[in-house]
Amino acid sequence: MSGETPRSHGYRRLFALPGARAFTAGNLLARLPMGMFGVSAVVMIAGSRGSYALAGAVSATGLAATGVAGPWLARLVDRHGQARVALPATLVAVLGSLALLLCVRYDAPDWTLFAAYAGTAATPNIGGLSRARWAHLLRGEPGALHTANAFEQAADELCFMLGPVLASFLTGTFFPEAGTLTAAVLLLAGMLLFCAQRATEPPPAVRSPAPSPLRSPGIPPLLACFVATGAVFGSMEVVTIAYADGQGHRAAAGAVLALQAAGSCAAGLAFGALRPVRVRLGHCLAGMAVLMTLPWSAAGLTGSLWALAAALLAAGMATAPTMVTAMTLVQRHTPVGRLNEGMSLMVTGLLTGVACGSAAGGWAAEHLSATTGYAVPPAAAGLALLIHAGGRRRR
């Protein structure tokens, strides 16, 4: 016998833990709507009001509100427990989604759309809640935690790959509000199942003396890295849509981008299945910077959407290992009792980066060319690498 415990490595052993399958099922059910809400809201509002500018502004408001509310909500989770905070917060978020649906349906004034969608900022960081459970169940087992983090990253990619497709199908096949309504139902059902699994819930740290994660050594440079990495994702999405539109295949942009998520999902599962080796974040960021040049090369040298799709599939394979390694460092550097808050801060940084990257990619695609816009993702990845290297030198 090798002397390994049943929880050391591998997905089968991971889900042999009591309660792991149940809370994972709830987590996946609740996480799928995260890839649905944005597309559903844009289609619903644009179809009703005839304005993509209004739809985009409402969506951006919800994103900004989520970035502000996320760390505060995560702090409450750390202090009072997941079920006591996440379930009421989910109810508020669902009511916000339903309010938006009704405002659109009954032609309420435009300002009500912003107010209603801001309520969805109460949506808990579902991926963070699940990662916190794995960290609690697998404390002292870095090999198994590596596998769990890889699975969670693959789940993120899968949900953001399938969510927009499902939302587009529902809004196009049934009625414009179908996507938002289905997403709200799935979110509530998933969180009810997730929060019902109390045996795997981490104990709350009601009076944690730990300082804010922002004051913990190693966290600020990681937060800056997440902002730059988010810019990679945001710019790639906007530039790809612009490039496909210029080729006369705008409808294919979603499928092409889904290949990037598919590459990341596959790489994440493979990365988690391997026995953990000493992979440094700098190596992952360097690999991402290199692989993100592939779409730029494919667009510039071939002009083919098929070649671009293959390049995005390959480039996506750098995403999951980078995010898994970075999130493992966040778990390592975050003070005890503040884990949900630390991970939520990283999500806020990622969302900030997505917004900045979208703006930069959009500017480059409009004022230069869509092909030139593909220079933004590798530049953002290179910036993340420089930030990380600077942070290591200071430490």
UniProtKB/TrEMBL annotation:
GO terms for molecular function: transmembrane transporter activity. SUPFAM superfamilies: MFS general substrate transporter. Signal peptide: none annotated. Keywords: Membrane, Transmembrane, Transmembrane helix. The chain crosses the membrane at residues 20-45, 52-73, 85-104, 181-200, 221-244, 250-274, 281-299, 305-330, 342-365, 371-391. It holds the Pfam family MFS_1. The keyword Transmembrane helix applies. InterPro entries: MFS, MFS_trans_sf. Gene3D superfamilies: MFS general substrate transporter like domains (1.20.1250.20). This is Transporter. The lineage of its organism: Bacteria, Bacillati, Actinomycetota, Actinomycetes, Kitasatosporales.
